[in-house]
Amino acid sequence: MIETKNKRDRKRLESIAVHAGKGKRDQYGSHTTPIYQTSTFVFENVESGAKAFRNEEGGASHVYSRIANPTVEELERAVCALETFGLDDADEYSGMAFGSGMAAITTGILSVAHGKHIIAQDALYGCTSQFLKEEAEPMGMTVSFVDTSDLFLVEMELKQNPDTRLIILESIANPTLTLSDIEGIAKLAAAYDALVMVDNTFATPYHIQPLELGADIVAHSTTKYMGGHGSIIGGALVAKDELFENEETWVFRKNLGGIAGPMDAWLTTNGIKTLPLRMKQHAANGMKVARYLEQHPKIDKVFYPGLETHPQHKLASAVMKQGYGGMISFELSSGFEGGVTLMNNVQLCTLAVSLGAVDSLIQHPASMTHSVVDPEIKEKAGITDGLVRLSAGIEAAEDIIEDLEQALEKC
Ligand SMILES: Cc1ncc(COP(=O)(O)O)c(C=O)c1O
What we know:
By secondary structure, this protein is an alpha/beta fold. The chain folds into two domains: 10-272, 3-Layer(aba) Sandwich (Aspartate Aminotransferase, domain 2), CATH 3.40.640; 277-408, Alpha-Beta Complex (Aspartate Aminotransferase, domain 1), CATH 3.90.1150. It is 38% helix and 16% strand. It has a seven-stranded mixed beta sheet, sandwiched between helices. The chain has a five-stranded mixed beta sheet with strand order 10-11-14-13-12. α14 packs across α16 (397-408). The longest helix is centred in the last third of the chain and has 20 residues, at 275-294. It is globular, with a radius of gyration of 21 Å. Mean pLDDT is 94; it is low at 1-8. Pyridoxal-5'-phosphate (PLP) binds at residues 100-102, 125, 127, 170, 199, 201-202, 221, 223, 233, 235.
């Protein structure tokens, strides 16, 4: 068993990723954890059933897979180990796996902030933002939005809303890959008795560990880098057991029903084993591609935390010790038409939404995800006509660059 406590050497994250989720030896000695593809669990007799319902064995009793499942638990241990790697109190935390990133985020929000005020980053992922704008209020929550990259604005918002229960932000946010000072926000939140939830999907614990910086809850769309192969939809939360117990987050997951399925959990755990290796290559490629795009005459702007021109480059360099991730946005000088031409001419890059897969994924929000969105809303979200988002894959960087080069020639 790999010891996860008090080990500051980040190189060991590779070992944690491979071993951390492992559970008990199964009856046949299967090397990989079996996919417990079952809805329900059989009791030996009435007494053992009653014990399981009373949770007398300790740990998670296996009664029904909407409550707990051994394959899902393996994933929960793995995500938790990665997010708490190096923390002195790592063993006080737990992971919870969900059927999607949105199930994780909404279950997390509802369990801690129902009936209360939420301060939300103004650049959250579209569905998180829509949930907070349209659905949170009828569910009894109030929400105010703020640019969390500005600590002063966060403090003003807290002063105006001293009853705030939750601040929610992303460690790296779309579309301009904005970073926020998580440590500073956590200190402010603590002074106002508020909790901080960080969606760490873009950065992953390879680059940023929000819990180490003082956040209370980490959320993930494991659909992305964690799964890593574009083969599942999934999500996760990590927080102290005490928080999950006090806020009844386990009960919310049971009753809202958003737990991950065993097959998806198994695929995600398999993906996690290579997360550090993949992130290393994603980040190396991200940097090379960003540098290439930066000097390209047909490109007006490149957003990448590793570039000196990025507004939070200094902050990124302070918290991201192993590169700057694989996500890049850039603006084409040829605007909307240029974006369409680029999309229709890439050959290696895959034309698709989502991110964090082994292959490079490219999309043009103005003609694709945001084509029906109001121009005013698009502008507010920073989605210009020529904006392109690229999730640099793990191919050879030279091949990604050659592909962009031949497609940009036509723009
Ligand atoms: C930053 C971020 N958070 C959450 C989500 C939602 O995750 P899912 O699609 O797994 O529900 C996404 C999806 O793109 C995302 O990019």
